[in-house]
Amino acid sequence: MGLIFGIVVKRLGLGLLTIVVISLLIFLGVEALPGDVATAILGQEATPETVAAFRKELKLDLPPHVRYFAWLGDFMRGDLGTSLANKRPISELIFWRFGNTLFLAASAAVVAVPVAVILGILAALYRNSLFDRIISMVTLSTISFPEFFVAYILIALLSVQIVIFPSISNINDQMSFWQKIHAIILPSLTLTLVVVAHMMRQTRAAIINILASPFIEMARLKGIKRLRVIVLHAFPNALSPVINVIALNLAYLVVGVIIVEVVFVYPGLGQLLVDSVSKRDIPVVQASGLIFAAVYVGLNLLADILSIITNPRLRNPR
Amino acid sequence: MVFFKLLRQSPWSARIGLAMVLLNVFAAVFTPFIAPYSETEIVGDVWLPMSADHWLGTDHLGRDLFTRLLYGARNTIAIAFVTTMLSFVVGTILGFFAATLGGWTDLTLSRFIDILMAFPTLIFALIALSVVGTSVTALIVIIALLDSTRVYRLSRAVAMDIAVMEYVEAARLRGEKIWWLMRQEILPNAMPPLVAEFGLRFCFVFLFIAALSFLGLGIQPPTADWGGMVRENAGAITFGIFIPLWPAGAIAFLTVGVNLIVDWFLHIASGLKE
Questions:
Q1: Measured between CA atoms, how close is B172 to chain A, in angstroms?
Q2: How far does chain B reach from its first CA to its final CA, in angstroms?
Q3: What's residue A61's pLDDT?
Q4: Looking at CA atoms only, how far is residue A281 from chain B in angstroms?
Q5: Nearest-CA neighbor of A181 among A162, A165, A161, A193?
Q6: CB within 8 Å: B126 and A149
Q7: pLDDT confidence of A115, banded at 50, 70, 90?
Q8: C-alpha distances out from residue A38 to A33, A84, B16, B169, Å
Q9: A200, A210, B46, B232: most buried, per Cβ within 10 A?
Q10: Taking CA A175 as the corner, what is the angle to CA A173 and CA A179, rounded to the nearest 5 degrees?
Q11: Which bin fits A125, alpha (ψ -120 to 50), beta or left (φ > 0)?
């Protein structure tokens, strides 16, 4: 047990280091601008006075390392600075939207994970059957589709041809839970379809990999019943890759949500990030980018740790 | 000749994929000859239905949609292709470099790229674009650099196996420089997996550019490109006009085609008979 603990702590440290380096990159990205950020954003016509004021507002008059630590320290304390576009504190803008994004991602995950795992296992068990071929074809097409194509097809079918669900998912705090669910059904369905396709293909590959290994063949040749082979021999070994697949796809979901949010004008963090990029509201971009990155790195870390725990072979690195 | 032999053995799915890709390439290359109108010419009313004059109707400014789709193919495919090429040049050079030199060059490069890869590409691109502003050059350079991390991983792994071969050792001993080693000894032997990867990366880059254009941060109007066309015409769908589905479908059509070919390539590469 102590050994696992050590490895997990090491992983966590590595994850933390990654996030620190990412925060540095996000910060330095602005520094690396040729010329001066202030003039680049304000344009050529800006007077020296406005540029100076703007530099002060971005705290560009302080040396870089001081600014970096100040920024990171404030970030840790929940003070994300103020938006350039509307002068409101960024934390006020972000937290409600981040909650909405997590709500949307979670609603997709709750449906997608069981469906994808069950379909993946079935496709692997009956591989090269008609069922497997059809599913392979459908998922290969789905992962080739851009998310917005799936989204607009769903809108065309379920919001225009038959008017059941809204094509704009506006939610607010006054709505009850079920009203919110009704409002986000289409974006959630879009995400579910895309993620199921990815996850199912990877699950299928992982299970086939295990079914092809010698110990399964051995168990079959000993004459053990098919169900017993699957439950007792294949399942414990499949757990590690499948958990890994799930965690990685959840990480993908958090990022994939951005485009879907824009399609459905959903008030989430992704929408805010995209808006801020086009407005060049750099403090908001930095803050929301760092939050997305931290969640993504965190979920990848979770995938690593879970696969170390479920796979004894990974506990003894050479 | 090898190509035709491969083609004869290919499954029907790969042939369909090849046909889909060739159709797109044909449309992209011969756009000015096929297109009935010019790229930004306004030819009629807004969102006209399909007719003999306008095969797919008109867009949100009254431009011929079929023409825009053709020019979109030209612009989107060309930019995605250039980006993928650039990403392969950067990725393979760095990857081969790390594999041939080894030691701390390899270690620092690999750790740095690990960290870059731990970062979601879309977020990275968005932050970078917010800093440098949106232009085609910025788009190509940013996406190529981000994507070259994946190419680096593969080319380093492949070159690692080749760099320990006797013929590389022999070349090293007769005093060849590192560039010569990389170009003459490693590159020809690393070609097959890199070619398969090229298809995969192209798909990814293509979808990525389409997504950024859709978000309004990629190729800027009035240049026709498929992602941007979906965005411009998105409003039509709530009136029951399915115009945005055409460019979105075109994106899907090309990526499905490339994926069908890549799937078959990977199948050959994995050596599976089943």
A1: 30
A2: 26
A3: 67
A4: 8
A5: A165
A6: no
A7: very high
A8: 10, 12, 52, 54
A9: A200
A10: 140
A11: alpha
Cβ-Cβ contacts under 8 Å between A and B: the total is 128
CB distance B55 to B44 below 8 Å: no
**Pair B64, B36: CB distance under 8 Å:** yes
User: B58-79, pLDDT tens digit by residue?
Assistant: 877 878 888 888 898 888 899 9
Chain-centroid distance of CA A205 in Å reads 22
Q: How many CB atoms lie within 10 A of CB A127?
A: 16
pTM of the model: 0.84
CB of A138 less than 8 A from some CB of B: no
Distances (CA, A) of A118 to A127, A196, A279: 14, 10, 44
Is there a contact between A292 and A23 (Cβ–Cβ < 8 Å)? no
Confidence of residue B273 (pLDDT cuts 50, 70, 90): very low
Cα angle A238, A109, B119 (rounded to 5 degrees) comes to 85
Whole-complex ipTM = 0.81
For the cut 90, the answer to whether the pLDDT of residue B115 exceeds it is no
